[in-house]
Design goal:
By secondary structure, this protein is mainly α. The protein has two domains: 85 residues, no CATH class; 64 residues, no CATH class. 57% of the residues lie in helices and 4% in strands. Strands 1-2 form a two-stranded antiparallel ribbon.
């Protein structure tokens, strides 16, 4: 799917996604998510996009900081001072966008040691997709995989409000 097309569609379908995520059949959606997740990852190459690394920062939890500092052979305090800042929720996040560990070819310089949020993103195979509606709606406009999974869920459970024309 052309980048512009999915981004436009994701913005247009926000109300339908929100309605579905808040009022839809959670069990039906949870049952469909693994297959939709696999299909989306089979069709979309994250290395062609890297929007997550360009637009988001994961939370860097203490185990992440410890692991990454060890991999980079620097002190944890130096990792925090050089790359991280505290956000409004008191979580460590990347000081800059795009992520300082994103290479020019969209690979991750700390991939094997990346934060758990990065490893789990875009949460399309987890109940987080249903439980954190605001995050899912934002991710739909950043990540084509999230968009594709939500479109798949809409196809099996059409929204009653903000109806999507098919």
């Amino acid at each position: 799917m052309l980048e512009e097309k999915w981004e436009k569609e994701a913005k247009e379908h926000q109300k339908a996604y929100k309605y579905m995520l808040e009022r839809g059949d959670k069990n039906k959606m949870l049952a469909a998510m693994p297959e939709l997740h696999e299909q989306a990852f089979a069709q979309i190459d994250c290395l062609q996009c890297a929007n997550c690394c360009k637009n988001h920062s994961p939370r860097f939890k203490q185990p992440d900081i410890k692991r990454i500092a060890k991999a980079l052979r620097i002190k944890e305090g130096d990792l925090v001072a050089q790359y991280l800042t505290l956000d409004k929720d008191g979580d460590y996040v990347s000081r800059q966008r795009p992520c300082p560990f994103l290479a020019e070819d969209n690979t991750c310089n700390i991939y094997e040691d990346r934060p758990s949020d990065c490893a789990r993103y875009p949460y399309t195979d987890e109940d987080v997709l249903l439980k954190r509606v605001a995050l899912t709606l934002k991710n739909a406009t950043i990540c084509p995989i999230t968009h594709q999974v939500l479109e798949g869920l809409l196809a099996i459970q059409p929204a009653k409000t903000g109806k999507v024309a098919r």
